[in-house]
Write the structure tokens for this entry.
Amino acid sequence: MSKKISDQELAEKCLKNSEYFNQLVDRYADKIRRYIARITGNWTESEDITQDVFFKAYKNIASFNPQMSFSAWLYRIAHNESVNFIKKHYRFKNVEFNDEIKNKLTEDNEALKKIFSLENVETVQNGLKKLNQKDREILELVFFEEKSYIEIADILQMHINSVGPTIKRAKNKLKTIIKQ
Amino acid sequence: MKNLKDKIKEKIKKEKPNPKWQYTTNEILKNLILIILWISIVIGIGAFTYILIHYNPWTKVPYAFKYFWNNLFGLPWEFMIILGILIIISYYLVKKIHFIYRLNRWLIVGIILLSLILGYFIAEKIGINQKIANIELIRKIYQSQGKLIQTKRTAIVIGLITEIDKEKLTIKDTAGYNWSVVIDKNTIFPQGSKFFLGEIVKIQGITNKNSINAIIMQPLNIKLRGYRKINYNPNCNDLKL
């Protein structure tokens, strides 16, 4: 049985052979697309943004620092691209989730159920919608992407000690919104 | 219809990653700029801190704010603009440093404090503080053509000490007028300063005919055209209040 090559190793080998990057695409393309769709609230556009994310990652793979996890590095690029998209298209209004994206992301509702012990997942989805971008993003990374604190710190570029309190604050805000 | 993964793979097929040396060079250049900026800021802020501490405004707390205010606007505007630009550039550059967000905030505070202390000593060593303080004065002297410099509420007189003892201090300004300097317990001096006959001093105060009530008095390390320091030091008493 062949040993699974780590992301870091693949990233290093990409410089010589793009075939290795294809493996990374297979591993992360869907996850990244879902993440972008959640942040931007736009399923259709998320496809183009995901392509851009992987293209940028491939072109700049030499700048990847192995001290960081590859996944966090890739999510950081996705985060930046999503924020740029939001700035460009939703400068003066909040991101709204349309029915299309709701349907596409329903598979994640189980995660929300488990975390909040709530029957009405729709309420939680609506609650998340009302949170500001920063709070929503950190909750999505914890609940949907199941990222560790260190990875969240790298993706959102914040100090690791701030991750816990920020999550707690965001969760409290979400709970308050849901109760209302 | 192609799925997303195939589209990405096809897109990168004809492309090559940017070479590693590009990033290495970029990083080296970025770090070099940062180091230069850091040194400039350290010296700049250090000099600023030096000026404030050197004139020890804290010993005369009621006047501290006024003194600080006078000194702040006494600094050359070019210095303030350059310092401001450097701080803004550094802010954006520092944001680009890898993993700075991973550093403990107390470590960052420590580095800033250490930089200030370092800057303070560098500024003192190379005498940049005095240079900075003098730039504005030299300009004022030039603009006023040696005459009395009148600010909003006070006047600044720069001149040579021609008479000094415990009761009397007279200075001759650059236009040749003699000023009798009135010093009281509220007059502010740079910490540890001593005044001698033949020394050039700057006095900021309120004028009354040919006398000036000194609010701030400080020695200057500049050479004024037409003056030579009198190489004479008979029983002249140090003026220490």
The two ends of chain B are 91 Å apart (CA to CA).
